[in-house]
Amino acid sequence: MSHILEVKNLKKYYATQKAVDEVSFSLEQGSIFGLLGPNGAGKTTLIRMITGIFFPDEGEILFNGKKFDPINDVVHIGYMPEERGLYKKMKIGEQAMYLAQLKGLSQKDAMAQVKDWFVKFEMQSWWNKKVQDLSKGMGQKLQFVTTVLHEPKLIILDEPFSGLDPVNSNLIKDEIYKLAKKGCSIIFSTHRMEQVEEICDHIILMNKGKKILDGTVNGVKQQFKENLFSIGLQQMPEVISSNAFKAIGKADHTLVVKINEGHTANEVLQHFIQQNNNITSFNEMLPSLNDIFIKLVEGTPLSRQFEKITE
Hints:
The protein is of the alpha/beta class. Helix content is 32%, strand content 29%. It folds into 2 domains: 3-221, Rossmann fold; 225-308, no CATH class. The protein starts with a strand and ends with a strand.
């Protein structure tokens, strides 16, 4: 699969601060890419270099296989910043038309696209409303529409679900999937790890200007797994001991165990089968992206929603 975007050893300094420091990654066509990191990690600076707002001090950006040209390539990019850039006193229909034509669409094509998206998002009755009269959620829907209606090859979404209720969040989520299936590549930046886990194929994690993690969502979770398993038992045994594992938590009829090095999950199952205990479930517990994020960035222990077992 071809790469729509390649970032190579990108650097951006502000005085003595390294906002982006030797960051490299590639984005495949049609993929949904999660850009994660705490405040001040360098995400916004990185996005501004990718969109041509800032020039890198060092490094290279390739767009669609060629050196990125901010003047000509920017029309193929849709950027939805976290801080909204809509004209508050302008009517919504006029604003959508203006932004569509600014991205290169003819008046006829712009009208067709705007009407199609307004119908899709049930925004027809908003045409003559002003942005300043919209709720935050309604403004968010308009911002999303104006970002994608010119059918860009690369779409960058910074906190796209902010202010949206669950129904409209699902509406935009469905459109993100459809755009990716059509071949659009999407960079999705957010603090909501559960959304990244659900939506993204690939992620990178930045901290203090550096890339500290890069991989597929499942690959990253496998990398940080801790040999933890949850076992559903019809009856919780009074004594839990084995050379193969250590019990670290329990809740209702569920036991959480950590398999000791050199032992296998089959040995754990065999242990409970030999006790004639009815096993109702047996699942590996992979860490959430939120757990991994906290572990890498803040250095705090992984949280567990189970009662601690004391020895």
